[in-house]
Write a structure and sequence with these properties.
By secondary structure, the chain is of the alpha+beta class. It has 2 domains: about 130 residues, Electron Transport, Fmn-binding Protein, Chain A (Pnp Oxidase, Chain A); about 45 residues, no CATH class. Strands 1, 2, 3, 4, 5, 6, 7, 8 and 9 form a 9-stranded antiparallel beta sheet that branches. The structure holds flavin mononucleotide. Flavin mononucleotide (FMN) binds next to strand 2, strand 4 and helix 2.
Length: about 200
């Protein structure tokens, strides 16, 4: 069994029934000091064992990922009663692909990427919400969304899985099905785990 096929199939089924989690994932990171952080992100693409995310280089998560921080990616599809925990290494995505996609983003997301570059990094403190509104109005007066170009800091990251754990809750007897998949020399092997 290939866990990537399992994930793709589960995600497709989740999409069909409008599962709110079908297009998102939960990324946990550990800092060098061992401080944990977790956030919801749009899961852009799954290509072979690569899970693609789009992020901004001003963000704390990029600061960690770019230094090779340990991560775990969690997928949970309530409609399918299936959870996947994914581990491995990470790699920046070829920025051209990210820049092409950026043009399709909603106006608000484009203005925020300009905010991160010209006003304050993502996740930094604001003096007031009003200060951000003033900055957004300033940017709107200068740029029409269709004419905007992606700042250099717009980037993506591929999480390249070599360790995937599936938990399937679809058994009537509640003795859940739990399997760990490990990628070695290009082939996935699996072992059952105590659920
Ligand atoms: C449904 C949902 C989707 C999100 N998608 C993204 C995303 O694709 N990229 C992103 O940078 N932040 C996204 N966010 C915001 C992040 O969860 C987070 O608040 C932000 O990226 C700052 O994270 P950081 O301080 O850990 O770097 C999303 C949040 C939600 C609730």
């Amino acid at each position: 069994m290939n866990p990537i096929d399992e994930i793709k199939q589960t995600r497709n089924e989740a999409r069909k029934v409008h599962d709110a989690n079908a297009d998102v994932c939960f990324l946990a990171l550990a800092s060098p000091e061992g401080e944990a952080s977790v956030r919801t992100l749009v899961l852009r693409d799954i290509n072979e064992n690569r899970f693609s995310l789009f992020i901004n280089q001003s963000s704390p998560k990029w600061q960690l990922l770019s230094k090779g921080a340990n991560y775990q990616l969690l997928l949970w599809y309530p409609s399918q009663q299936r959870q996947f925990r994914i581990g491995g290494r990470s790699e920046p995505i070829d920025s051209e692909a990210v820049r092409t996609n950026w043009h399709r983003r909603p106006a608000g997301s484009k203005y925020l990427d300009y905010v991160y570059k010209e006003f304050a990094p993502q996740s930094s403190s604001l003096d007031s919400r009003e200060a951000l509104s003033v900055e957004i109005e300033r940017l709107k007066s200068l740029h029409k969304p269709d004419d905007m170009t992606p700042p250099e800091e717009v980037t993506g990251v591929d999480l390249i899985a070599n360790d995937i754990e599936m938990l399937d809750l679809n058994r009537d007897d509640r003795i859940h099905d739990r399997v760990r998949f490990t990628l070695s020399a290009g082939a996935w092997s699996s072992e059952p785990l105590v659920p």
